From TrEMBL:
<keyword id="KW-1003">Cell membrane</keyword>
<keyword id="KW-0472">Membrane</keyword>
<dbReference type="GO" id="GO:1902600">
    <property type="term" value="P:proton transmembrane transport"/>
</dbReference>
<keyword id="KW-0812">Transmembrane</keyword>
<dbReference type="GO" id="GO:0005886">
    <property type="term" value="C:plasma membrane"/>
</dbReference>
<feature type="domain" description="Cation/H+ exchanger transmembrane">
    <location>
        <begin position="26"/>
        <end position="350"/>
    </location>
</feature>
<feature type="transmembrane region" description="Helical">
    <location>
        <begin position="338"/>
        <end position="358"/>
    </location>
</feature>
<feature type="transmembrane region" description="Helical">
    <location>
        <begin position="129"/>
        <end position="146"/>
    </location>
</feature>
<dbReference type="Pfam" id="PF00999">
    <property type="entry name" value="Na_H_Exchanger"/>
</dbReference>
<keyword id="KW-1133">Transmembrane helix</keyword>
<dbReference type="InterPro" id="IPR038770">
    <property type="entry name" value="Na+/solute_symporter_sf"/>
</dbReference>
<keyword id="KW-0813">Transport</keyword>
<dbReference type="GO" id="GO:0015297">
    <property type="term" value="F:antiporter activity"/>
</dbReference>
<keyword id="KW-0406">Ion transport</keyword>
<dbReference type="InterPro" id="IPR006153">
    <property type="entry name" value="Cation/H_exchanger_TM"/>
</dbReference>
<feature type="transmembrane region" description="Helical">
    <location>
        <begin position="202"/>
        <end position="222"/>
    </location>
</feature>
<feature type="transmembrane region" description="Helical">
    <location>
        <begin position="158"/>
        <end position="182"/>
    </location>
</feature>
């Protein structure tokens, strides 16, 4: 036998082999957890923690970077689904309900900004973090809905809130990123140029979405594609959208969300872009969960001041979301509690921006960096379970159907 084959550590030098091993471990652990009535996607979290930087260190930032395009593609599909589930007509017609969801977004940003300023952060970095913490993670929410086989009014409202919160966060990030960058340069006169640059990213995201959606409509109509053929054509166009956003530094999040919104609200034909290949969808969620967990630094939770601030912020987001739902009349108390809890997750800056044009948290102080690191660690460890519990609290999970 070849000596290289006998040298087993060489197997560990293959990023693809590591990824496969991690996914296999995630699936095995997930089945064990599911048999005990727990979310099976926590298997991916455990696998990521064991193999990642907080464990044996086999999967680190260098390994993750090699698969960045794959992760971006998986995230793109989730974001498209978020947009596809946004019902603009319902948000407009259901005045109290739609208004409550928008109020929740605004209250989140306002209260979190106040807490961060009270923690000693400067106004610019508090504004950036507050804008980012408005959003809830579409990946965590969608995966827990899939894991629980949940459907109902709370799931529908949650899907609309996810889209609304992510768009609100993105729009508020534009002026706050410009403010933070111009402050870091020490030249407030550069704010206008930086703001224009950020606005152009949004503008190009819209242009690319309209272009790709137009190509999809043109291609399906010219070819007279049947409903069962259109998902493949749509997937091709989504990859085009993501690729164009990547090379042009356009906002992929806005572009992909808009693609989903257009498909739901402008396309009148039957759409069948559903996860018929459920196994592939579940593997995508497991991959994203595992890689997120692999980069979590558990030691960040040892900084008690940052941890205390992070826990206050995490809890405040749930409380103010619940308070904002008070005017809504279509949901009962139990549904409102469930909705507020299931919206507890948050997104990282990289996930919200999707592409690689901005890495980390530019311009944030060390204290702010520690708070964000603690928040993301709590997010990976606690948010999936709380989201899953919120769906159970709403009584809209149908996991029993999986075992019939």
């Amino acid at each position: 036998m070849n000596a290289d084959m006998l040298s087993w550590p060489l197997w560990l030098s293959s990023p693809l082999a590591l990824l496969g091993a991690g996914l296999l471990l995630a699936q095995v652990l997930g089945l064990v957890l599911e048999a005990r009535g727990l979310p099976k996607l926590y298997g991916a979290v455990v696998a990521g923690l064991v193999l990642g930087v907080s464990g044996v260190g086999m999967i680190d930032t260098a390994v993750a970077t090699q698969f960045q395009e794959l992760f971006n593609a998986a995230t793109a599909l989730v974001l498209f689904e978020v947009g596809r589930k946004m019902d603009l007509a319902w948000l407009w017609r259901s005045r109290r309900q739609g208004g409550s969801l928008l109020l929740a977004c605004l209250l989140r940003g306002t209260v979190i900004w106040g807490v961060l300023v009270a923690c000693g952060l400067n106004l610019a970095e508090a504004s950036l973090m507050a804008a980012m913490l408005i959003a809830s993670s579409p990946i965590i929410y969608a995966s827990m809905v899939s894991d629980s086989q949940a459907s109902g009014v709370t799931v529908f409202a949650g899907a609309n809130f996810i889209g609304l919160a992510n768009v609100t966060a993105l729009l508020l990030l534009v002026p706050t990123v410009a403010w933070l960058r111009s402050s870091a340069d020490g030249e407030l006169s550069s704010y206008g140029a930086e703001l224009l640059k950020q606005l152009s990213r949004l503008g190009w995201g819209v242009v690319i979405a309209l272009l790709c959606y137009g190509l999809y409509v043109l291609a399906t109509r010219l070819s007279r594609a049947r409903a069962r053929m259109r998902p493949g054509m749509l997937l091709a166009v989504l990859l085009m959208d993501l690729g164009l956003c990547s090379v042009s530094a356009a906002s992929a999040l806005l572009s992909l969300l808009l693609m989903g919104v257009l498909l739901r609200n402008a396309e009148k034909r039957d759409n069948v872009f559903q996860a018929e290949l459920r196994t592939g969808q579940d593997m995508g969620y497991a991959l994203l969960f595992m890689m997120s967990a692999s980069l979590v630094q558990i030691q960040q939770l040892l900084h008690w001041q940052a941890l205390a601030a992070a826990l206050i912020l995490f809890a405040a987001r749930v409380v103010v979301t619940r308070a904002a739902l008070v005017p809504a009349t279509a949901w009962g108390k139990e549904k409102k509690n469930a909705l507020a809890l299931s919206m507890c997750s948050l997104v990282s800056f990289g996930s919200l921006m999707v592409d690689n044009s901005m890495n980390g948290y530019p311009g944030l102080s060390e204290a702010a960096q520690q708070i964000m690191a603690a928040l993301l660690a709590i997010n990976v460890l606690a948010a999936p379970g709380l989201t899953w519990y919120g769906l159970h609290l709403a009584g809209e999970n149908h996991e029993e159907n999986l075992h019939v």
